[in-house]
Amino acid sequence: MTVLTRGVSEADWEKIVAYYLAEAPDTLPPQSLPAEPQLDPPFFKIGPFAPHLRSSGIITLLKTDAAHQRIFLGEAGTNLLRTFDFNRRLIATQTLASPPTDVIVDSGRVLLLESGILDPTMSPRAVSSTWPAES
């Protein structure tokens, strides 16, 4: 992909427009959609991420840490950050000041981004936290 470092000149823009006017079809071919909805293949199925785990159902973060084989799951409503292993066993639960929206694992630390207040409000608020990463 090429990224332009400056705007296109007027002359180059006119060449681009002329190319599209000359080469583009007058109309697009008709599209046909399947008459019946397609069912998911049998290997797709829904189920709970972790059975018997209560959830607000408002997921704000789902991210993996492959190096430490962890899955981070954040929720609004409860402001919880849950950490699971790759077998979906709960390792840790933390209650935060606001819903977590991102994590970065860096040099033995977990950097956490919290979103502040998600509900409509006139009061802006930003919160962030860090803590040592588990080995």
What does this structure look like?
The protein is mostly beta strands and 135 residues long. It has a domain at 59-132: Thrombin, subunit H. The chain is built from one helix and seven strands. The chain has one helix at residues 10-23; strands at residues 59-65, 70-75, 80-85, 90-95, 100-106, 109-114, 127-132. The strands form two sheets. Strands 1-2-3-4 form a four-stranded antiparallel sheet, with no helix packed on it. Strands 5-6-7 form a three-stranded antiparallel sheet, with no helix packed on it. The protein is extended. The mean pLDDT is 84.
Detail the topology: elements first, then pairings.
Layout lengths: L9 H14 L35 E7 L4 E6 L4 E6 L4 E6 L4 E7 L2 E6 L12 E6 L3
Antiparallel strand pairs: 1-2, 2-3, 3-4, 5-6, 6-7
Summarize the structure.
This protein is mainly beta. It has one helix spanning 10-23; strands spanning 59-65, 70-75, 80-85, 90-95, 100-106, 109-114, 127-132.
Provide the structure class.
Answer: mainly beta
Write down the secondary-structure element order.
HEEEEEEE
Instruction: Give me the oligomer status.
Output: single chain
Radius of gyration: 24 Å
Helix content: 10-25%
Name of the CATH class of the domain at 59-132: Mainly Beta
If helices are DSSP runs of H or I spanning 4 or more residues, what is the number of helices? Answer: 1
Describe the main β-sheet briefly: 4 strands, antiparallel
**CATH fold field value of the domain at 59-132:** Thrombin, subunit H
Overall outline: extended
- From the N-terminal CA to the C-terminal CA, the straight-line distance is 39 Å
Runs in which pLDDT lies below 50 for 5 or more consecutive residues are: none
Number of strands: 7
What proportion of the residues form beta strands (DSSP E)?
25-35%
